[in-house]
């Protein structure tokens, strides 16, 4: 048991309680407190992972490099989606993301990162060679570290490396889920929507051989689903409040607050020595503010946050311009 009172058995028990829809008190408050402490511990794992990744990139390329702590609702959804998932073994509570120019840079960077610290970093999935069924592409690695002083071993950060185009695709899927609630990310969308976004992913692939046939099928589905129309209607519709944006840097933590009904997005920035305060604010918003969606993240600048998480900013102009060309 560690000094925070969070051992892996306790974390697993809390995750199971939340996944089962438990509501009785005081167990609910105890479970939420345990999850938030678990996320707090992962802030340090994420910080180290980002430092390692920055060093590993060296002169190879200049990726957008950001990190985030997983949202409570997505943690619970993931636990519910697969009973085999346990919270204490979930490998993406902390997640780092690198965005580069193209697939060639994805592979170069992946090789360099794995070679930089082969003992603690390894490739776990190559979704470029073997895309997910929904069309997701990218390379995922895992960074591992131990907290001996807390008696916690094998604490993980998921590392995603994506090309610019595939990042646009992945974040637009999340954005469309937000504005339409069709369930793409959770695998609950009608088949036509899955097919629509799979076609787009294939068209974005550099090795696409039947682009014309894919475009024709995409046009037929657009006539039925009106995805492009719905995305275009919401493109760049958020007003970003600038207070605090100048304080965004890799050392600090940012709480992104997106209020789609009011078309506003705000940032709260916390110094590195206020991590516990940032996590508690994150949890407070998740549990008590139904009007928005929230994310606890790290980045070098406010601009990098906007590039890395365009689904929060409803920043789909570039994707819509590309999709409009395919449909014309």
UniProtKB/TrEMBL annotation:
One of its GO terms (biological process) is guanosine tetraphosphate metabolic process. InterPro entries: GTP_Pyrophosphokinase, NT_sf, RelA_SpoT. Residues 204-231 form a coiled coil. Residues 67-184 form the RelA/SpoT domain. The keyword Coiled coil applies. The keyword rRNA-binding does not apply. Keywords: Coiled coil. Pfam families: RelA_SpoT. Gene3D superfamilies: Beta Polymerase, domain 2. This is RelA/SpoT domain-containing protein. It comes from Parafannyhessea umbonata.
């Amino acid at each position: 048991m560690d000094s925070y009172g969070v051992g892996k058995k306790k974390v697993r028990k809390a995750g199971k309680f939340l996944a089962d829809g438990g509501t009785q008190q005081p167990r609910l408050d105890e479970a939420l407190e345990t999850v938030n402490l678990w996320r707090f511990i992962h802030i340090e794992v994420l910080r180290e992972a980002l430092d390692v990744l920055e060093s590993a990139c060296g002169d190879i390329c200049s990726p957008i490099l950001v990190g985030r702590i997983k949202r409570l609702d997505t943690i619970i959804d993931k636990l519910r989606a697969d009973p085999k998932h346990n919270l204490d073994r979930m490998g993406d509570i902390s997640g780092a993301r690198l965005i580069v120019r193209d697939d060639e840079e994805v592979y170069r960077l992946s090789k360099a990162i794995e070679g930089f610290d082969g003992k603690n970093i390894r490739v776990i999935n190559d979704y470029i060679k073997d895309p997910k069924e929904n069309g997701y592409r990218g390379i995922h690695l895992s960074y591992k570290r131990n907290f001996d002083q807390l008696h916690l071993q094998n604490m993980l950060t998921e590392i995603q490396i994506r090309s610019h185009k595939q990042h646009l695709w992945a974040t637009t899927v999340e954005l469309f889920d937000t504005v339409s609630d069709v369930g793409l990310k959770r695998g609950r969308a009608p088949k036509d929507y899955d097919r629509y976004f799979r076609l787009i992913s294939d068209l974005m692939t550099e090795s696409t051989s039947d682009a014309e046939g894919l475009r024709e099928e995409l046009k037929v589905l657009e006539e039925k689903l009106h995805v492009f129309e719905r995305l275009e209607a919401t493109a760049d519709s958020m007003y970003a409040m600038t207070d605090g944006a100048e304080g965004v840097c890799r050392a600090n933590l940012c709480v992104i607050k997106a209020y789609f009904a009011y078309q506003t997005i705000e940032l709260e920035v916390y110094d590195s020595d206020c991590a516990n305060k940032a996590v508690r604010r994150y949890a407070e918003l998740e549990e008590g503010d139904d009007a928005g969606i929230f994310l606890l993240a790290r980045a070098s600048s406010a601009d990098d946050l906007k590039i890395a998480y365009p689904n929060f900013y409803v920043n789909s102009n570039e994707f819509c311009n590309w999709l409009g060309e395919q449909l014309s």
